[in-house]
Design brief:
This is Biogenesis of lysosome-related organelles complex 1 subunit 1. It comes from Penstemon davidsonii. Pfam families: GCN5L1. The protein is mostly helical and about 130 residues long. It is built from one helix and no strands. The protein is rod-shaped and about 180 Å long.
Length: about 130
């Protein structure tokens, strides 16, 4: 009896061992699949992260380039303004010189008219003295 009881017990143990082995094998496969999926998810997350960083950096780089262009244009504009300011000052100086020259010409003309009138007065006085 013991033997017949042992045979089924041995087959029961074999079945349990087989079930444990199958379970361990399934667990190992599941662990490997999980690890593979984890690595794949990490790789894809890194790819997405890199794409996002590149997209943001691309925008930042474009803004930086535009900022540098604006700074260069601002410097060029400031230099042009300074040049025009100096040129305007030169024009003002020249126009003041022309105005002064015109004023001197007008003053000389007035002086000449005054001298002419004085000479006529003196000439008339001399003629009056001479005729009397």
């Amino acid at each position: 009896m013991e033997r017949s009881h042992q045979a089924p017990a041995g087959s029961f143990e074999a079945s349990l061992l087989q079930m444990i082995n199958n379970h361990n094998h399934a667990s190992i496969e599941l662990r490997e699949q999980t690890e593979k999926a984890k690595k794949d998810a990490i790789r894809k997350a890194m790819r997405v992260s890199d794409l996002l960083v590149n997209a943001v950096n691309g925008g930042v780089q474009e803004v930086f380039i535009n900022e540098k262009r604006i700074e260069m244009e601002t410097r060029a504009l400031a230099a042009t303004i300074m040049r025009f300011s100096k040129q305007t000052d030169q024009w003002l100086t020249a126009s003041h010189a022309v105005n002064s020259a015109l004023k001197e010409i007008g003053d000389f003309e007035n002086w000449m008219k005054t001298m002419e009138l004085d000479c006529k007065s003196i000439s008339a006085a001399i003629c009056n003295i001479h005729q009397t």
